[in-house]
């Protein structure tokens, strides 16, 4: 069985990807310092509880499991926190990530899949954002993700490391069998906050601004189900293991929904009104972020299957009602 090192495999997207790696015949070996992840989420392979800066842990793990490829989910990813504490973001998302890449190279791992984000684009100039859109981030989170993308480019020029950069749009939803889901603390994402507000385990929902230049005044996002996102990683891995070169891919659907549409869909699923209030805009939120997914659709054996808003909200709601961690 081919083993894959999954940095951040105890987190929301990493754990879901471990599940799909195992279903596709790989052994996911998680390395995670459990700073924002959960030991209970590591169910489909071993957990090496260590920081990605730990060169000894990586060397030992690569040798023990004969690792040929790695995925790098381990990062700090709160936009607001990054504005308050950019040093933390440069330290973990760039410093630790570069150390991780160099450990991989030292130990002969030649394939790396990296979790990047639509936040690298900053304020979009076009309705649909392709990978060639200028990358001018407007917060330290996006800037640090872009910095590591650029580091990967130069590191690959001087080594035999190949990389796939996946720029996710809005990861959302939960495992279809209810085994893993989103349990961030603090939670800042719209859909889990909406679910918590409905269940009564969180504060009432606040819409961050209704005066955007969109049809109903609320921001538009491209919501991609976490199961589809995980499948994109497996497809990218299969392409790399069959000799595919380095590349950058948006992971989104190409279809946007406003915040008000998300709330209306949840209301129709639950057959009741969801109370909310209109608050001020959140600093750093663009009006519209929607992927042009042409490249991934044409290059990888992948297309979104579960990213309709109903499936996203239904699975997220089930998870928030029954979550195991
Ligand atoms: N959630 C989203 O909507 C979204 C969108 C775009 C990109 N991303 C990126 O996807 C990745 C995964 O996001 P997530 O929502 O699953 O986050 P998460 O916080 O749930 O998971 C991150 C995991 O990495 C671990 N980790 C962090 N720093 C580490 C370190 N130095 N050493 C070892 N382990 C470390 C954490 O303990 C956690 O288990 C991140 O890189 C994030 O920036 C997420
Ligand atoms: O309580 C809330 C929370 C969010 N929103 C709005 O809902 C939308 C979605 O917000 P959120 O779920 O926080 O995601 P984003 O801020 O769009 O960011 C996510 O999606 C981006 C890609 O599109 C990634 O770069 C980020 O890492 C990821 O957190 C935005 O318009 C927010 O203004 C609200 O109105 N109220």
UniProtKB/TrEMBL annotation:
Q: Which pathway is it part of?
A: Carbohydrate metabolism; galactose metabolism
* Residue ranges of every copy of the NAD-dependent epimerase/dehydratase domain listed in the record: 4-252
- Fetch the NCBIfam families from UniProt: galE
Query: This protein is called what?
Result: UDP-glucose 4-epimerase
Record-level Gene Ontology MF annotations: UDP-glucose 4-epimerase activity
Keywords on record: Carbohydrate metabolism, Isomerase, NAD
Pfam families given for it?
A: Epimerase
Cofactors needed by this protein, per the record, are: NAD(+)
What are its E.C. numbers? 5.1.3.2
How does this protein assemble?
Answer: Homodimer.
Q: Which InterPro entries match?
A: Epimerase_deHydtase, NAD(P)-bd_dom_sf, UDP_G4E
Instruction: List the catalysed reactions.
Output: UDP-alpha-D-glucose = UDP-alpha-D-galactose
The question of whether Secreted is a record keyword is answered with: no
**Domain of life where this protein originates:** Bacteria
Into which family does the record put it? Belongs to the NAD(P)-dependent epimerase/dehydratase family.
Top-level EC class:
isomerase
GO biological process, any: galactose catabolic process via UDP-galactose, Leloir pathway
Record bears the keyword Secreted: no
